[in-house]
Design goal:
This protein is mainly β. It has no helices and eleven strands.
Length: 123
């Protein structure tokens, strides 16, 4: 399976973007995670959940502002970014893992990564 992330861009604070993570084939048994890496910082967890559906876990910093959705027919997962803040500026990555729920925030357990898409939020 290969992943292709897209949808990043430049947006003003308070604005919205929708990121896409398209898989080359349906990763039925995988968990898909979103991570981000801000300039000069380590990559951090944003959200994760089963590709096929079910509950989504969000980082506290994005809870209530970011939402994950899926289009199974297109093998695509979306990350809707609302009420964006300058501190949301980062390269956003999607990734796949087969680990258990308790470890889904651990980026080291993800084995398949997309190439990243840059989100820049101006103040």
């Amino acid at each position: 399976v290969q992943l292709q992330a897209s949808g990043g861009g430049l947006v003003e604070a308070g604005g919205s973007l929708r990121l896409s993570c398209a898989a080359s084939e349906r990763p039925q048994s995988y968990t898909v995670g979103w991570f981000r890496q801000a300039p000069g910082k380590e990559r951090e967890f944003v959200s994760a959940g089963k590709w096929s559906g079910g509950p989504i876990r969000y980082a506290d910093s994005v809870k209530g502002r970011f939402t994950v959705s899926r289009d199974n027919a297109k093998n695509t997962v979306f990350l809707q970014l609302n009420s964006l803040k300058p501190e949301d500026t980062a390269v956003y990555y999607c990734a796949l893992t087969r680990i258990v729920w308790s470890e889904i925030a651990n980026q080291n357990r993800y084995t398949i990564w997309g190439q990243g898409t840059l989100v820049t939020v101006s103040s």
